Amino acid sequence: MSDVMQACKFSSIEVPNRFALAPMTRTSAEADGTPNALMADHYEAYARGGFGLVITEGTYTDDKASQGYANQPGIINNAHISGWETIVNRVHEAGSKIFIQLMHAGAQFQANHYTDQPLGPSTVSPKGAPLGLYGDQEAWQTPSAMTESDIEVAVDGFARAAENAKAAGFDGIEIHGANGYLLNQFLSTHFNKREDRYGGTLENRLRFVVEVVRAVREAVGDSYPVGIRLSQATVTDPDYQLPEGEAGFRKIVEAVRDAGADFVHTTDGDVSRQNFVDGDQSLADVAASVEGLELILNGGIDETNHQDVANQFPGALLAVGKKALANPDFVQRLKDGKEIDDLDFAMLQPKATITNELAWREQNAA
Ligand SMILES: Cc1cc2nc3c(=O)[nH]c(=O)nc-3n(C[C@H](O)[C@H](O)[C@H](O)COP(=O)(O)O)c2cc1C
């Protein structure tokens, strides 16, 4: 039996318990991507509410095409660093650790402060419609296929963003390799139709991901926590499956480890969903079977199942999304045996901004 409330070592740091706030985009930064006081209050609330590790929302990495949403935060200049520094300090003062999630939107591009033209592995748009939660675009734009020079710029953006994150005082870096954003697009046979060394075989589709992980590791040095979030599902295609199945996913996990990642964060609709084209394992099962990596697990973890997941995956951190939105003090409530609320999606309407959340909370105050 493993005690989820016990402090534990994770990579080179110590976290006060095994609960992590899952990364959640709130499109509440200034128009130029600078994190603000509203965001500082927001993130501090999760630390005060008991989450041992806070993972930030997806944060853009360059002034080219990495931003995907209006009012998404960035980490590319001194104003961004200083805005994040305030947030990091507030989370630390509350006793928790904080990782930044670095994200390049690629073809999942709804708004960008610097360019109107999305980039992707190929000229392929995401399935379905853009997300109303993050903006009011009606249709996806067709991305331009990235040239080798675009790829180099994007890789370098991740490395510079990682240096900036370290300078802002973050305790570690999570690279967003999940949910249909750029790294995930390179892995995906829906998005990646390239015929060069970045497309085709899984080894080629992995090349960009490996280059990003390696560049981030080189930028921050050896003992700093670096990991990557991985999924098969994308935000508009929750049932996408890698044609290479379980063995393919294992290959991805091993490749990111070998490139310098020290943790992998798996995410799926449900942490135990068996959604490979073959076999009967979950993403978490496969990731746990690879040696030499720490784990963060996500997908439907709540007050009813967290202990089972913790027992099944000793040492893994448990990332909580929707239940955390509904209960920023989720961990404290568990400790106190208090009732846990379900998320009312009205809280995130018409967009997932913190301002809309606050208005909803005021309206629904008992
Ligand atoms: C409003 C909202 C914003 C999200 N933004 C991100 C994000 O920026 N990066 C990311 O990797 N996942 C994002 N997610 C996905 C969550 O991190 C999590 O994977 C998902 O909610 C499933 O976990 P849960 O069942 O605990 O909610 C977001 C989810 C929600 C509800």
Residue share in β-strands: 15-25%
By CATH, the topology is: TIM Barrel
Q: Which architecture name does CATH use?
A: Alpha-Beta Barrel
Mean pLDDT: 97
Query: What percent of the residues sit in helical stretches (DSSP H or I)?
Result: 25-40%
Distance between the termini: 37 Å
Strand arrangement, major sheet: 3-4-5-8-9-10-11-12
Number of domains: 1
The SS-based structural class is alpha/beta
Give, in order, the helices and strands: EEEHEHEEEHEHHHEHEHEHEHHH
| Count of distinct strands | 12
Question: Which residues form runs of ≥5 with pLDDT under 50?
Answer: none
CATH top level assignment: Alpha Beta
| CATH superfamily placement | Aldolase class I
Rg: 19 Å
